Amino acid sequence: MKRSKGERMFSVFNYIFLVLLAFITLYPFAYVLFASFSDPVKIMSVKGALFWPVGFSLSAYKKVFSNSSIYIGYGNTIFYVVVGTMVNIVATATAAYVLSRKNLMLKRFFTLMFIFTMYFNGGLIPSYLLMNNLKLVNTRMGLILPVAVSTYNLLIMITGFQGISSALEESARIDGANNLTILTRIILPLAKPTIMVIMLYYAVGHWNAYFRAMIYIRDSDKMPLQLFLRDILTRSQLGAMSGDGSIEDVGTTIKYATILVSTVPILCIYPLIQKHFVQGVMIGAVKE
To answer: pLDDT at position 268, please?
Structure first.
């Protein structure tokens, strides 16, 4: 079909708008990338936009990676992301399966108990006392078990499970399948897009988490990457204020280097699950 002049103008407007939107979205990241590879002295004189590195330099990254503790932080963070996400998915999927069953007694009561935790909590001091009584302070499990289930992610997964035809479950029960078999062999494979999206949410949460580690972790060999990067950034700022020239020179670019070091690895996960992401986040958005 031949498109009308109005339709062509509308398409051109859409393309221009989307290009501008993409530029606005990507430019902050590009600015951080260019600034991190710039000369620390020259970048101080740059005002306004930055579209390429100013005097290419790796001094900021040398400062970041010269700290051997950062590799310990990477190892700890990978542990928290992998083990923590596995615990999250198992706990959330189990709870979502139970709460998505139509014949569950007190289903509304249990669901409201989960939702209650989204709006109310005991506060920092009671939480610390509870963690201490459970012997979870200064342990790796102390950063994983208290956040095993996110109510928001649980509600998304419940909606995803409810969208699966109940006839499949009834057919499996006729063949002698129990709840564990139904969950692992029917529900989870069919809810793969939802599982992948929830897994991404949990993984990003564990990767970026630093406040819980700052409160509960004392030993440096258990600290995640974010705490080590925060320490590097803090020391660079203190060095700049105290007049330490070796640190002051890279005080600006080191901020951008730490941002890239802490974000690029987790960004690499997105392309791996991109095909599931759109379908997963739209679960429950349309009701038949």
So the answer is: 79
Name the pTM for this structure. 0.79
Q: Which two tokens stand for residue 171?
A: 């057919």
pLDDT in tens, 8-39: 888 889 999 999 999 988 888 888 888 888 88
Q: Where are the domains of the chain?
A: 59-281
Q: What is the pLDDT of residues 88-130, one digit of tens each?
A: 999 999 999 999 988 888 888 999 999 998 888 888 899 999 9
Structure tokens at 96: 């979502």
Q: Is 59-281 a CATH 3.40.50.2300 domain?
A: no
